[in-house]
Amino acid sequence: MDRARIIFILLSVYIFAAFAWWTYAHYSNTQKIFTQKKDLLEMSCYKATFDLQGAVSQEMFNDSIDMQKFFAANYPELDLLFLDNFMPLDNFMVRPSIESYKKIEADLNRKLTMYITEGLVMMLLLFWGMVYIYKSFKKELFLKKLQNNFLLSVTHELKTPLTAMKLYMETLLKRTIHPEQIQTIAENSLNETKRLQEQVEKLLLSAQLDSKKYELDIQDVNVSELVTEHISHYNLPREEKDRIFTEIEEQLIVKADASAIEMILNNLLSNAEKYGGEHGKIKVVLKSNQNQIILQVIDEGSGISDTDKRMLFNKFYRVGDEQTRKTKGTGLGLFIAKHLVHLHKGKISVSDNQPKGTVFEIKLESNAN
Fold it and tell me: Which domain holds residue 126?
């Protein structure tokens, strides 16, 4: 990626330099042409002077009026001045007219303005094109990284329960074990099956959300009871049940899809469990503020960088590198949560907890349709 970025930057610098040189070359050539035209105009004064002197010596003019008519017909870009009223045909001066100078200068300014304008427009278009290409290129690399992360994580998430279930089945077939052990193996197999089912359902749900085919079942929901009940059944080891603390305002009613709210809360709790530090406290706050219902899931982990905050809700995005990350997941939880919140016409945001950790906040209109 760094090599590609360096090549792109060098190519961009070369193209910009080439256009800058093109503009400068035309600007410089235009000024040279102006100088040459001015020199030619001044040289034409010498030619006109010699021609007039020859015509006078051949007595082609009777007076200065005839001479003026001849001059105007043959040298319209020059002015003829008589220096002696008594002998005007022998004492005269030829010089460029002011209009001729103005015409040359106007042509110079027009061309300079044209080249500068064309150069600036081309540079701006080029800059916009380069920025667009760079963003597309960066996005492509980002999507490729997400795809690679997803393949690594989903392979692990699907392979692990399958491997465990295979081991349990082989144990039942190859060994004679006590009924109590059979019960334990069956329960463990069922848990692994549920885990595998959850991952498959997440994949299907993310596909539905991506294609905008997921539909909400909107009803009046007592979100206070729903959150309380969901937390009581949340899948945490028995010794860690007291890890979750709650501040839940009672009897908060909202028009929503109850199953979707549960999925949102479950994904946020799962995220807090993974990144909230080992045995770190998780706090769930549910409160009302005017016509809004606010749900917060707060952890005491190491926090999230500003860069990761901007990417968190992208599909398959996970903090860190998939090859070195120890936490489970496919990077779909927050993506699903964001889209479900938006389907409820709500807002989801992430901020820093004090003194450490992260706060995920959801705002829903209490009278949402």
Answer: 2-137
CATH of the domain at 231: 3.30.565.10
Domain's final residue, options 109, 137, 165? 137
Q: Is residue 65 in a domain?
A: yes
What are the angstrom distances between the C-alpha of 348 and each of 185, 201, 226?
A: 40, 22, 19
Domains held by the chain: number:
2
- Do residues 228 and 129 both lie within one domain? no
Per-residue model confidence as pLDDT tens for the chain (369 residues): 567 777 778 888 888 788 788 778 888 888 888 888 888 888 999 889 998 888 888 888 888 888 889 888 998 889 989 888 778 888 889 998 888 888 888 888 888 888 778 778 887 888 888 788 878 877 777 777 767 666 666 666 677 778 888 888 888 777 677 777 778 888 888 878 877 787 777 777 877 887 788 888 899 989 999 999 988 877 665 555 577 888 999 888 999 999 899 989 988 988 888 887 777 788 999 998 888 899 999 988 888 888 788 878 877 776 655 444 455 666 788 888 899 999 999 999 998 888 888 999 999 987 544
Q: Which amino acid is at 321?
A: D
Contact 338, 209 (CB under 8 A): no
Rounded-to-integer distance, Cα 348 and Cα 365, Å: 12
